[in-house]
Specification:
The chain is an alpha/beta fold. The protein contains ten helices and ten strands. Strand 9 and strand 10 form a beta hairpin. It is globular and about 60 Å long. Bound molecules: adenosine-5'-triphosphate and magnesium ion. Magnesium ion (MG) binds next to helix 1.
């Protein structure tokens, strides 16, 4: 479904990614791990076209994503969440979740202002999708609460609902369990597994919480210093000496 082909990203002399290649099969859950600064977020930024590449290509269902703008990527079904969540804190949960649906079907500000039938139809549909997404992650009771009144764990769910509201086929999650308690992280794993079967999703998940990555991933790619240092099924990766060295900073 997705083919990352030798991507290199350089920011002001820092090589964040160096010839990184991996693929994701339709329906697969891929874990992306590595120490801080390994380049994980940069990979997601490259796929969602938020950062430019010095070299390489990224193909989704056979077509290169590089010439596409971020909103075109979303319309193709690639939707992501952010390490720092990027929610609108003073807006309601519902309004934040609806943004996901609006990303997918942008309309002109002029049509919105005129309140054309097409613009009204679109808001009704987006609202319906948002309610469904909030129900799926169990936050529908908080629909009218302001995001800044919510605890961290709830905000993570709002973010997930916003992504679901955009009807993803490939979902990219950047540290969805960061800041969650062990129990909340376990609930998140159960929730994501439920989507997987009901929505037929394909996923790339970045996570430092090892229990979460191990529980969710069919396969794991390990980055260190902008390079892929290991790839394989979770049990093999967990036992790989190069991976242990990257994490512990010394040979296993
Ligand atoms: N826009 C940017 N400008 C300059 N440097 C950047 C930029 N984005 C990333 N980098 C650098 O690229 C490297 C990889 O960063 P990245 O955020 O992808 O790491 P990460 O694996 O997601 O780390 P973490 O686990 O801390 O989130 C780091 O050295 C970072 O400082
Ligand atoms: Mg990151």
């Amino acid at each position: 479904m997705l083919e990352v082909k030798g991507i290199t990203a350089i920011f002001g002399g820092v090589t964040a990614l160096s010839a990184v290649s991996f693929g994701v099969e339709q329906g697969e859950f891929l874990g992306l791990i590595g120490p801080n600064g390994a380049g994980k977020t940069t990979v997601l930024n490259a796929i969602s076209r938020l950062s430019t590449l010095a070299d390489g290509d990224i193909e989704f269902e056979g077509a290169s994503l590089l010439p596409m703008r971020p909103h075109e990527i979303i319309r193709r079904g690639i939707v992501r969440t952010y390490q720092n969540m990027a929610l609108c804190p003073t807006m309601s949960v519902l309004a934040n979740v609806m943004l996901g649906g609006l990303w997918r079907r942008p309309s002109s500000a002029f049509a919105e202002w005129l309140g054309t039938p097409a613009a009204r139809q679109r808001s009704t549909e987006v609202e319906r999708d948002a309610i469904e997404a909030m129900r799926a992650v169990g936050i529908v009771d908080a629909a009218l609460a302001r995001v800044d009144s919510l605890a961290h764990g709830m905000r993570r769910k709002v973010e997930l609902a916003r992504a679901l509201c955009a009807h993803p086929r490939l979902i990219l999650l950047d540290e969805p369990a960061s800041g969650l308690s062990d129990q909340e992280a376990e609930e998140l794993v159960a929730l994501i597994r439920r989507f997987r079967s009901s929505l037929g999703l394909t996923m790339i998940v970045i996570e430092h919480h090892m229990d979460v990555v191990m529980a969710l991933s069919d396969r794991i790619v390990v980055l260190d210093g902008g390079r892929v240092i290991a790839e394989g099924i979770p049990s093999a990766v967990a036992a790989n000496p190069a991976v242990l060295e990257a994490y512990l900073g010394q040979p296993a």
